[in-house]
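Structure catalogue
Derive tokens from sequence
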Amino acid sequence: MSIRIGIIGCGGIAGQHARGYATCPDVEIVACADISLQRAQQFAAEFNVPRVYSDYRTMLAHEKLDAVSVCTPNYAHCEPTVAALEAGLHVLCEKPMAMSVAEAERMVGAAQRSKKMLTIGHHFRFVPFIRFIKQRIDEGLLGDIYFGRSHALRRRGVPGWGEFHIREKSGGGALIDIGVHALDCIVWLMGSPQPVTVTGKTFTMFGNRKSFFSAWGDYKREDFDVEDFATGFVRFSNGATLSLAASWAAHIAENEDFTQLILGDRGGVVVRPFGEGAGVRIQSARDEALLDVIPSGFPEKHPHIEEIQHWVACLRGEAEVLVKPEECLNVQRIIEGIYRSSELGREVRVEELSPPQQEVRAARQEQSSSAKKKSRSANRRR
């Protein structure tokens, strides 16, 4: 039986999903939805999608779907994901998981209650040499891991499209945009330990300057209210630590630096997910000799395509979700912890980031009441 897919959000990243689904036999994108009907129609024409909607809720109500890809902007990740899960569908949501810890916890809770699969689009995990080194680390290659250092740095790369530079729409700047990719990758490679405390500082040094030039396109400088540089330090429950830095603009030597370093008592690794020097290097020692190993010969595969093919295998019951939502929730906690620490000027405990249970219950009741009102209104229109 064919797997029936719906696409929510028909912008640029949705095309990556569509191209991935096209490589999978017996998978059909039967409908797509976008608040811009014209954009949805253009997407449908390009990828031969039969039906188009301007409201994802209508699509969920009228289509017999098995799963959806949520490819909306950051501010619209949570609501469609929760709605689809509650409708009994499996969900692949693009990164970052959400705008906040509260939203991410809602998404995880909806997946647990519905017993449906939820995963997040962190495609670094599907790069062949990253999967290779993950397996070696899990086998004990590094021994006791005690430190990680994550870079997601651009020299000049403020996005000139979309609304990445507006906090209300994106949730933040460089950290939540590109830092989230590196964070997910390194924390996963370190064994997904639980973060306990977070310290951080964000800076807006270039993005709001009228004279600033970004090769990534233009945007309204007066709207720029997010960070273009962030740094942080994380303590984990197993005693390991992590330092990180993310930038859209910084006076660095490289155009981009996404180097991930992990140290253990038996060895260390350096991972560069893409670009010049992409690959993995292993450092260790034996007796008085220092050993350096550079694995090679990995197949050239498109990580976005690999991600979708793995997701389809999960939908068929042939694989387990690689990017678990609980792990992504911890990444969200680190990101929000850095933002909160920067605002407060102090270290933040991760437990501070979750709203009290009474607030969660009140929010759910309000959302349920709102959903019922919308349903009654829709029924009257019919």
Remarks:
- Residues 357-381 form the longest helix (25 residues).
